[in-house]
Specification:
This protein is of the alpha/beta class. Helix content is 37%, strand content 15%. Strands 3-2-1-4-5-6-7 form a seven-stranded parallel β-sheet, sandwiched between helices. Strand 6, helix 6 and strand 7 form a beta-alpha-beta unit. The longest helix has 29 residues. It is globular and about 55 Å long. The two termini are 36 Å apart.
């Protein structure tokens, strides 16, 4: 699929998902607007590779919870690269905490970073897509939008909020030519360590519990590429679980044998 001259906005290029998306979409000739909390420090290798592939890159370090900052940046971005055709919202702030121990401040910080940013990106970027009558929004959430982690209730709550926001956005924006879908991503290799829990064994021997294989960030990149084009057809308002079947597992004695 050729995305030459298409402008792709990725809300967190520093995430493993963001790095994989940047590299894969650059290969298709996309113009990339990469929001990097580290100001590019965490993605130096990816930036070099993407630019070597000929990608045009607009590096951002935005507070996505500021409507003013987002709108002003979008004005500059559109003047430099053109209108955004694909928005990938992949905010995944995680903090280990329980309902009993979480402070109100931490709860609001995580919900703001993950869910409020989705709301504002939908209104500002999705709103301009609707005005033009075209565009695609892909929300990258987590399998924990539907299954508790046992390790960070506020992470799960924020991902569940994004999931419902996406459904409402699909209902409203689809009428105006904007395709909206959600991907529930399982933890990529190594990230499962964050989700160890004193009350759940879900992630014990994680790599042996997915019937097919554990999810990889590049799987998301390939899926995003498909969803960004006309080949996706009527695929709209969908939630796609990208976890290799991990959530289907329920009997530990039936795990795949150790390699």
């Amino acid at each position: 699929m050729n995305l030459r001259n298409q402008v792709i906005f990725i809300t967190d290029a520093d995430q493993p998902s963001g790095r994989a998306l940047s590299l894969r979409l650059a290969q298709e000739g996309a113009r990339l607007a990469l929001n990097s909390p580290s100001g590019g420090a965490a993605i130096g290798e990816e930036l070099t590779t993407a630019r070597a592939a000929g990608a045009s890159i607009h590096l951002l370090q935005l507070d996505l919870c500021s409507r003013k900052a987002l709108a002003e940046s979008l004005d500059h971005l559109e003047a430099e690269l053109g209108p955004v055709s694909l928005l990938v919202h992949n905010q995944q702030r995680y903090e280990a905490t329980s309902i009993e121990e979480c402070t109100e401040e931490l709860f609001l910080e995580v919900v703001d970073t993950n869910a409020k940013s989705a709301f504002l990106c939908t209104q500002v970027i999705g709103g301009r897509m609707a005005e033009r009558g075209s565009g695609t929004i892909l929300y990258v959430t987590s399998i924990h939008a539907e299954k508790p982690t046992g390790a960070s209730f506020v992470y799960s709550a924020s991902q569940g909020a994004i999931q419902m926001l996406a459904a409402e956005a699909a209902l409203a924006l689809g009428r105006r030519g904007v395709r909206v879908n959600t991907v529930e991503l399982a933890p990529v290799a190594g990230a499962e360590d964050l989700l160890s829990s004193s009350i759940s064994t879900l992630y014990d021997d994680y790599s042996r519990k997915a019937p097919l294989q554990t999810a990889k960030a590049r799987d998301l990149a390939e899926l995003a590429l498909f969803l960004s084009g006309d080949e996706a057809g009527a695929l709209h308002g969908a939630t796609i679980r990208l976890d290799g079947g991990f959530l289907l597992h329920y009997m530990d004695h039936k795990k795949k044998p150790a390699p």
